[in-house]
Amino acid sequence: MTPREVELVQHSWRRVVGVADEAAALFYSSLFVLDPRLRSLFHADMREQGQKFVTMIALAVNSLTRPDTLVPILRDLGRRHAAYGVLDEHYDTVETALLWTLDEGLGLQFTPELRRAWVAAYQTIAETMKDAARTEAGARPSAG
Q1: Tens digits of per-residue pLDDT, 111-133?
Q2: What is the pLDDT of residues 45-103, one digit of tens each?
Q3: Which ranges of 18-87 would DSSP assign to H, the alpha helix?
Q4: 2 near 72, Cβ under 8 Å?
Q5: Which phi and psi angles does 85 have, rounded to 5°?
Q6: Helix axes 112-139, 88-106, angle to 10 degrees
Q7: Is there a contact between 99 and 119 (Cβ–Cβ < 8 Å)?
Q8: pLDDT per position as a tens digit, 50-62
Q9: Which domain holds residue 35?
Q10: What CATH number should be reported for the domain holding residue 36?
Q11: Burial code of 30-42, b = ≥16 C-beta within 10 A, e = fewer?
Q12: Could you give the number of structural domains in the chain?
């Protein structure tokens, strides 16, 4: 990510934090409309899940300039998500839901430049998580 993209993402996230509960609710409602099968992956109270989601996005966004801090956290998160049953293709659905949520929440402030910055941020996050999940899967002994 470029410094400008990091700045855009971090600045826009500060606007989202003020309506975090509503943003999380919008995100999950969009996610489950896009792929209703994903609902079965969530067993916790969705308000609590929304708070976890917002906290994790905030941590990632605030750590974009510190990959030495961010990467180990994302790798751990990727391994845990794989254990929950998250597949690579689910990350695409999450990206669509996240971008839709940001567009809804930020309105006209969600410019094409800001959208590209968020795509870059999300792809960095998702690829790190997916790589960790694949590495973990490859490290497990195969059955049989």
Answers
A1: 999 999 999 999 999 999 999 99
A2: 899 999 999 999 999 999 999 999 999 999 999 999 999 999 999 999 999 999 999 99
A3: 20-34, 46-62, 67-84
A4: no
A5: 105, 10
A6: 160
A7: yes
A8: 999 999 999 999 9
A9: 3-137
A10: 1.10.490.10
A11: bbbeebeebeeee
A12: 1
